[in-house]
Write a structure and sequence with these properties.
The structure is a homotetramer.
Chain A: E1 2-5, H1 11-23, E2 27-32, E3 37-42, H2 45-49, E4 59-63, E5 83-85, E6 88-90, E7 94-100, H3 107-119, E8 124-126, H4 144-157, E9 161-164, H5 171-177, E10 180-183, H6 191-199, E11 204-207, H7 214-226, E12 232-236, H8 254-261, E13 266-268, H9 270-274, H10 277-289, E14 294-298, H11 316-332, E15 336-337
Parallel strand pairs in A: 7-8, 7-14, 7-15, 8-9, 9-10, 10-11, 11-12, 12-13
Antiparallel strand pairs in A: 1-3, 1-4, 2-3, 5-6
Helix pairs in contact in A: 3-4, 6-7, 10-11
Chain lengths: ~350, ~350, ~350, ~350
């Protein structure tokens, strides 16, 4: 941390800051300029934060310097990580296509969507059994019955499953079915949930809070990592802005920014960002050439009958066009499509 | 819902919309203008939402009309509600002052803060034992030990307690100590938590998500109400905007807007909104004359040693000034200070 | 400015920063900590900004310290200023009520609105002759004819006039009629306009850009001040946020924040903030007790026929209620209503 | 427009709405449902807006339906337009690379930057002579002297020039030098400037206000078009959000959204969006595959000495990499690089 003093401040004020910092075991380095005194602090940032240095006489500004996330930072882990989900890699050398229905509705609909996904080259299946919805009157998902449908479809197709978990005490149950747990945008700062998943060793996809900064997103990942689970994939899904023409605003810049700060893989969800079917293709292309390690898209055999977000689901015809774009631009970026590296029992 | 068709649209397109709406049990009323056809829909909005009407040929726009919250709406419950917390009312005839430390740290600090609060006319004590923090390295609260300290301080002072619960499976435990449960800003859409609290009959303070619209906030309250608990107090605590001069931007307009839409009481937290001690007094005054049913403020006997948000905590001297302002402006608004109406065992 | 180096950086990198800073006439003070080197810079911040220090090897972060506004800052001008508009003061000892129609439509409507305003205790008249509108198809104001109507109404009532100017080359013409020039929210960074008004000695009301930070707002005021005109009143009128229940979000905290940073008076426009008539009263009350030096409200004799923003205009009955609130709360704040101090020719 | 009445409303309230609408020459179509009455209005939307229908008894909601921009809309002009700047096309069949310094500083710097741009395949030169800056103490540009430098560099290189104009009364003067006028983000709603440029027949690049919705942006374009100038190119340059890791948040979705709504070409400025050199390449790639009709980037021979935004300027080496990406992805999109179609006098 850096403490900047007001112009013309008394020596006593400077000494008081130094004394308070040293009292909690920190070190303070004073630099005197012509019109300003600046004090650099070395020690535990959290301890310093609790000192209310900004409220001390003569202090003009207190600035935080070191990043607060450590385990997910690239600072001490320069090589970018690969997360494997039942043999499917998500990382710097590949582009992983994940597709499936927003919500699991019936065995038939889920299987049809999975087969569409697979035909288009997807190597993972998404599908929600627990749906956090703004309205309590909206369809909330099939619950554990939905998980069983997903497991059956995995048996049929071989596609590993990513599915959302919404409560800490359901983590163990969902993990019995899922290959990868998803933390949704509304739960990004549900710390009890983050910690419960951190206790497992199941890969996790952490969606960015629609109102969270990149810093807060990485801190949420740090909560998981701190408990020992580093199998984390970040997923940008649009942020809330004043613009209403799209459901959310895809922050495509988040991909290179995150990759500079963290070693974790980062993918993009173009379906929830834009909220409209016709935006999925251009946003997917943009995601891949911005360097995303994968994309996750909504598909549905009959979107007009979907119980959730039908307006953004791709149909089979769209998916073929998308698949070709993914293939071409993956190659352009010098990467390979992500394929399963070994065969597992399913 | 209202469906607006594109100019010059074919009859077939209009019929297709009507057919689809009727297929799910809805009614469709077609209004033909000179250049536009408009279709009004009567029936279940959620069902209609799933129909992807916006994606049908010839449809220009789909607009939602009816509010989605019912139990917390003022539409069918015109009189504003009063919530009682161990005999202390929060509602339209009173202004309730709630004060206490951001975090419970020690028995001494908590008791000192409670006595400061009480001397200033506060009739409820706030204090956090479970602290959701952005960083996993920040102080996370004392947990159940903190709750025991709060209960002891209630025994000593008679002040009812409001304290945060962060996880659905801890609701029962926290409710053993607390007189009112608090749902924090980061958990406003933790639906499992909302539902668990909805199952109890314990009063709850629902803080607005710092990035949530008023509509979403009322929908979150509806989740609680739907399970049978209508003892809900809403708390505005600042929203996230582009402005960085304050920690968040207090949305003071939310008070009259919410009171028009919902019968639930609404209070303001000026401490977390501004994030700076010197803003607490002007924002508290603004809150009361905007019509807030109460305010909740951070106090601390020694803010410079606080483990959490010391920069915004009031000290004893500030609190006296605040107390006078609360008294004067409560009277100006034709209300009374909230006092306990009966004596309970504590 | 403060330059923070990366951990374990080489001496060469530190020296390179120092050399570059000294090359442009600055001074650099190096502070070596255990894991970090911090360099404090003294000199011209703009010159330093142009050096791309953040792009130099080994630099982790560059932070700006000193404020960039000087003339409007309270740092060298601790006493808060009073601006007089034809004898009506706006400043720390008074609360000034400004009222009038959003747009000047006819002589009759303008006079009626002015008389309503005056009866309610307003001592200045607002009214737009040049209306910047989002749509080119919306009513754009009567132009110079509107200014003549305003001047006639001033003759009749004695109320000084504040009216908007939208283009640098019209400043002289508008200033022939107006007692105070208004810079609208969309023009807050129209620097040519700011500078043209800075060349005059006419008082100016600078509305906050609906998307501007307080820092940018004060910088815009500095543009005016730099040309020699310090007769500036700041006006908060709501900022753009994700919330759609109100037209904009009134940032009531801006009042105490600005008063801490700048000596300029600051008032609030509750009509444009909320965009709804029923919010004007609670927001006006909030404004006054937050410390605002005045309020400016829309009134209209027949709002349902208004050509601009009728939904937010007060009618005579509302205005009486507002007037009483202004009187009472002005007294509560230990201030006086603003009255003209001398009689001018009109 | 659509007027939605409250549930159980009286016939009188409905009739009153109809009467008021018909009084101003509009038509009202009443649709009665089981629980709601909906009234569709046909006629002039602006006239209706002035009626304060939302304030009438029994009215629940008023919704606008028809778009307010007409000349720039794709509704009546389905084919996407091409704008030619001294023979260089910007439109649906090409990708135009525009490059140059943020600010014109010296003849040498400008020529060097132009030659870098040309070597990389750019066919237009950008460069600012009038710089609107947040701070009045920042470098404001060389003014007309800068325009002369640009004209000399055009003579030397043949590259057409785009440069900013900041004031209505300078439009004619700047147009003597420029091939394309630029309206900067802070002036997007400077309506006097929009109208003055609308009076010319000079091509114009309209940057999106950093806080403007797409709707407002198209309305600003309509201001220009309304005066007869349809040679408009839209430029997305990042919007203001809560995220601070990038200078602004590039709204890449705006490209497909705008192309659906308007026939005008739309390009992207990746330099000002991200504000950091290392983001220019990934964001440029994303822009092209999202369908942008061009990109405009900052280059500088010695960014560390730039007087403006040096941190985001590309150097020669970066520019070569960018040029290859532009070429490859332009081909991928089935387009051609934009080349001058005829030789002009220069």
């Amino acid at each position: 941390m850096v403490v900047v003093m007001m112009p013309g401040v008394e020596t006593e004020a400077v000494d008081a800051v130094v004394t308070r910092v040293e009292a909690v075991g920190g070190q303070a380095f004073v630099s005197r300029g012509v019109s300003r005194v600046i004090i650099g602090l070395i020690g535990d940032v959290e301890t310093f934060s609790a000192l209310d240095l900004a409220g001390m006489p003569g202090v003009a500004q207190v600035t935080r310097v070191s990043t607060e996330y450590k385990l997910v930072s690239r600072e001490h882990h320069p090589e970018r990580s690969v997360v494997h989900v039942r043999g499917v890699p998500i990382g710097p050398d590949t582009v992983t296509l994940i597709a499936g229905p927003c919500a699991v509705e019936t065995p038939e609909q889920t299987l049809a969507a999975a087969q569409m996904a697979q035909a288009a080259g997807a190597t993972m299946l998404r599908g929600g059994a627990f749906k956090p919805r703004t309205s309590p009157y909206a369809f909330q998902g099939l619950g554990e019955q939905g998980l069983r449908i997903l497991a059956d479809v995995r048996q049929e197709t071989g596609l590993p499953i990513v599915t959302e978990v919404v409560s800490a005490h359901e983590v163990a149950m969902v993990a019995e079915y899922a290959d990868m747990l998803q933390i949704g945008t509304r739960n990004m700062q549900n710390f009890a949930l983050l910690q419960a998943i951190g206790e497992t060793r199941v890969p996790v996809m952490l969606k960015r809070g629609m109102n969270s900064t990149i810093q807060e997103w990485l801190m949420a990942a740090e909560y998981i990592a701190q408990r020992g689970n580093l199998e984390i994939v970040l997923c940008e899904r649009g942020i809330r802005t004043f613009e209403t023409a799209t459901r959310n605003t895809l922050d495509v810049s988040a991909v290179p920014v995150v990759q500079q700060l963290s070693h974790l893989p980062v993918i993009i969800d173009p379906s929830h960002s834009g909220g409209r079917r016709e935006l999925v293709l251009p946003l997917s292309r943009a995601a891949i050439v911005a360097g995303a390690d994968g994309i996750i898209v909504d598909v549905h055999p009959q979107p007009e009958q979907a119980l959730c977000d039908g307006a953004q689901a791709l149909v089979a015809k769209d998916l073929g066009v998308l698949a070709r774009a993914v293939t071409d631009l993956t190659a352009y970026m010098g990467r390979s499509p992500a394929r399963r590296r070994y065969r597992s029992a399913g």
